[in-house]
Specification:
three-stranded antiparallel sheet; Rieske Iron-sulfur Protein; 0% helix; 11 strands; mainly beta
């Protein structure tokens, strides 16, 4: 597991980005849950962490593509999906679990 940040530093509807090998990963907290996604929008590679984070979706700030929080699929085309990564909180610290790779 990779330590990301303290949960208290990850405010609601905010994100942080970490690099794992060559992959930027956005870790965010919304609707009382933690999520970790590939930070690159599949449309043009823009940072999703810089997008508009809502309770049910994240909207890319450049071309307004929107992805469902729970499934990572594009709202208007569920065949387009963001890569998700396991993330969890232990004793107030947020960890990215890369053991599934």
């Amino acid at each position: 597991m990779i330590e990301v940040c303290s949960l208290k530093n990850l405010q609601d509807k905010k994100s942080t980005v970490i690099m794992v090998d060559d992959t930027p990963i956005a870790v965010f907290f919304t609707a009382g849950k933690l999520f970790a996604w590939d930070n690159r929008c599949p449309h043009r590679g823009a940072s999703l962490a810089d997008g508009h984070i809502k309770e049910e979706s994240i909207q890319c700030k450049f071309h307004l593509w929107e992805f469902g929080i729970e499934d990572g699929c594009a709202v208007h085309n569920p065949d387009v999906k963001i890569e998700e990564y396991p993330v969890k909180e232990v004793d107030g610290v947020v960890y990215l679990d890369m053991s599934a790779d």
